[in-house]
């Protein structure tokens, strides 16, 4: 809230909330309006909860109303058994909804599956089926009458109105907290590129399951109160499905991924629905209106209302002020900063093996294709090792087996002498295995600085709840950017940089992990010669500072000038290994890869 007040746009929600607080006091005879606003707030609460998993992490759930029902039944059943008002059980409703979501999340979020959407609908259907058939517990399809509290006799709406307003504020506070935390930053990274997020140390499974569980909490909390407000709980599948659709619509209209978008959307969608119902007559105008709104939003405001307005305002401001022009070609030289202090591993590294990374007997097949076939390779600690070979020879696949993106069909991977074959991608990143990608995979919607503070060196609850800029990482990120001569790009969106600059930023990002070894996948391909020179300097400096480098590259002169040892891959097998001199003169290599003219054609392959 305090931060929101610093921005002029942060005033708007505060004013709206103020109006909501004052409305029942200032206006008279508002029972109908209040009851409409209660449902608006309910949708705002649900859309904000949904936003935590579907808006931030991008995993769209279409069955989230099941968690509202979980809260409704928890309040109704236990309230009756214990003879207390259902609404006092709201915290318990939050717990049961959260537990159900945890179980569902653990099952469906372990993988990165497109079937997630379908499964969320299935969970809703299953939930309603259980509610309709477990007569002993839920009263079956007849449901429950929920006793009204004694205070509700004279004026039932106004107290509920304020209770829902309170829940809404709590939900917004929860969202704000998550969005500012590392957890929130990690979720946005997952939405941008899940594989990349894992490679920089984000425990994607934990993050997704946590977000999914937390997203159900506001539903369960509000559900217990809502059941009592309604006065009954029945398992109506049609209502539940419509509710899920409406709340998704609310978040989409308002702007998913934003703090206030889902809140504003909740009000808009339900007010529109109310207008539609009044205007309906015999005709089902309200569904028609909803359908049209959905189509219009998807077509003209795919980001939602709030982000669209924000972008519009931002563009107007930018066009008024002088454009802040950055020459995309200009780039500062590598600085003299002592990089070793910034990137030295802080945790004890077992130096039991002189080979920092070793693979033995790696086999990886894709259907009929054997991409990597029985590869043994040991990377000397402190070396710069090259890996060359024609396109399709299995270099990237071998990298993916080393980093854990793929699990090899056979063979083992050792890091610092320890078997990590079964470790997840983020664990390997924590243990000091960093990598860049052949096609850079920066988080395009984030600034360069945000890209650099995203990597995580460990996984812990304390870290997840910490603010995203709470530690020393901003300072370190600036030092790394400074070292690489990228300081001027700090505030730029990653997408605005040239391909070569993105490659350097991606390397800077990996350095934030303080990796013991970095795997570079074709770092020089597609970038201009000045940047290649700079890249070579950076790699040498990193190596001097103690970082081991394994580099896949087609620029043979670059590889031969940088590396201590070069391995040649061909058809998924190691053709030969040796020093640059040996490789340069190996007839087998010349034949298979370099071609007879290689001594003449110095430059890119
Ligand atoms: P390189 O990086 O040396 O150019 P790759 O490791 O990308 O080679 O590819 C080696 C072989 O594996 C190629 O035949 C490629 O088509 C195949 N391959 C790589 N990744 C996949 C994948 N995800 N699914 C199916 N086949 C793949
Ligand atoms: Mg490749």
Task: Explain how this protein is built.
- This protein is α/β, with parallel strands linked by helices.
- The chain has 2 domains: about 10-235, no CATH class; about 355-605, Rossmann fold (3-Layer(aba) Sandwich), CATH 3.40.50.
- About 55% of the residues lie in helices and about 10% in strands.
- It contains 26 helices and 12 strands.
- The protein has helices at about 1-5, 10-25, 30-55, 65-80, 90-110, 115-135, 135-140, 155-180, 180-190, 195-200, 205-230, 235-255, 260-280, 285-300, 305-320, 340-345, 395-405, 425-430, 450-455, 460-465, 475-485, 500-510, 530-545, 555-560, 580-585, 585-595; strands at about 145, 230-235, 355-365, 370-380, 385-390, 410-415, 420, 435, 515-520, 550, 565-570, 575-580.
- A 6-stranded mixed sheet has the order 8-9-10-5-11-12, with helices on both faces.
- Strand 9, helix 23 and strand 10 (about 550) form a beta-alpha-beta unit.
- Helix 3 (about 30-55) packs parallel to helix 8.
- The two termini are about 55 Å apart.
- Mean pLDDT is about 90; it is low at about 1-5, about 320-325 and about 600-605.
- The site of adenosine-5'-diphosphate (ADP) has 11 residues, from strand 4 and helix 17.
- Adenosine-5'-diphosphate binds next to strand 4 and helix 17.
């Amino acid at each position: 809230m305090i931060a929101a007040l610093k921005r002029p746009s942060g005033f708007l929600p505060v004013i709206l909330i103020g109006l909501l607080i004052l409305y029942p006091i200032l206006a008279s005879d508002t029972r109908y309006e209040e009851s409409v606003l209660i449902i608006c707030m309910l949708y705002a609460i649900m859309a904000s909860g949904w936003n935590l998993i579907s808006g931030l992490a991008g995993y769209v759930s279409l069955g989230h109303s099941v968690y509202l029902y979980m809260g409704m039944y928890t309040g109704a059943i236990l309230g009756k058994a214990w003879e207390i008002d259902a609404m006092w059980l709201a915290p318990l409703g939050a717990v049961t909804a959260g537990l159900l979501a945890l179980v569902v999340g653990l099952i469906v979020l372990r993988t990165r599956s497109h079937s997630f959407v379908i499964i969320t609908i299935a969970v809703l259907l299953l939930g309603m089926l259980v509610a309709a058939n477990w007569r002993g517990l839920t009263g079956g399809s007849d449901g429950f009458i929920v006793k009204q509290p004694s205070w509700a006799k004279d004026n039932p709406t106004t107290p509920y109105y304020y209770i829902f307003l309170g829940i809404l504020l709590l939900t917004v506070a929860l969202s704000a907290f998550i969005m500012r935390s590392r957890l929130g930053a990690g979720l946005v990274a997952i939405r941008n590129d899940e594989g990349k997020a894992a490679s920089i140390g984000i425990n994607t499974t934990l993050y997704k399951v946590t977000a999914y569980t937390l997203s159900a909490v506001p539903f369960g909390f509000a559900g217990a109160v809502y059941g009592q407000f309604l006065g009954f709980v029945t398992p109506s599948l049609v209502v539940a499905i419509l509710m899920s659709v409406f709340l998704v619509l609310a978040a989409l209209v308002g702007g998913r991924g934003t703090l206030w978008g889902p809140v504003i959307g909740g009000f808009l969608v339900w007010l529109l629905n109310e207008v539609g119902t009044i205007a309906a007559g015999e005709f089902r105008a309200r569904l028609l209106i909803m359908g049209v709104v959905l189509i219009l939003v998807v077509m003209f405001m795919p980001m939602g209302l709030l982000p669209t307005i924000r972008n519009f305002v931002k563009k107007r401001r930018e066009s008024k002020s002088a454009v802040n022009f950055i020459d995309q070609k200009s780039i500062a030289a590598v600085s003299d900063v002592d990089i070793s202090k910034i990137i030295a591993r802080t945790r004890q590294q077992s130096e039991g093996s002189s080979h920092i990374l070793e693979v033995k007997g790696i086999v990886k097949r894709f259907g009929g294709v054997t991409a990597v076939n029985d590869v043994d390779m040991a990377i000397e600690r402190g070396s710069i090792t090259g890996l060359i070979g024609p396109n399709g020879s299995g270099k990237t696949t071998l990298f993916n087996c080393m980093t854990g993106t793929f699990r090899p069909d056979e063979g083992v991977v050792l890091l610092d002498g320890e078997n990590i074959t079964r470790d997840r991608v983020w664990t390997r990143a924590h243990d000091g295995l960093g990598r860049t990608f052949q096609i850079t995979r920066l988080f395009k919607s984030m600034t360069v600085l945000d890209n650099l503070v995203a990597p995580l060196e460990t996984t812990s609850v304390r870290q997840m709840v910490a603010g995203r800029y709470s530690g020393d990482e901003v300072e370190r990120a600036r030092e790394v950017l400074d070292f690489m001569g990228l300081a001027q790009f700090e505030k730029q969106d990653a997408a605005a940089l040239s391909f070569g600059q993105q490659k350097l930023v991606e390397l800077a990002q990996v350095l934030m992990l303080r990796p013991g070894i970095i795997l570079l996948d074709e770092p020089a391909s597609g970038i201009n010669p000045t940047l290649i020179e700079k890249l070579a300097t950076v790699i040498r400096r990193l190596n001097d500072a103690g970082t081991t480098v394994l580099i896949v590259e087609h620029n043979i002169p670059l590889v031969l000038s940088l590396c201590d040892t070069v391995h040649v891959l061909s058809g998924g097998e190691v053709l030969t290994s040796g020093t640059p001199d040996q490789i340069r003169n190996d007839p087998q290599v010349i034949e298979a890869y370099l071609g007879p003219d290689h001594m003449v054609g110095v430059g890119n392959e």
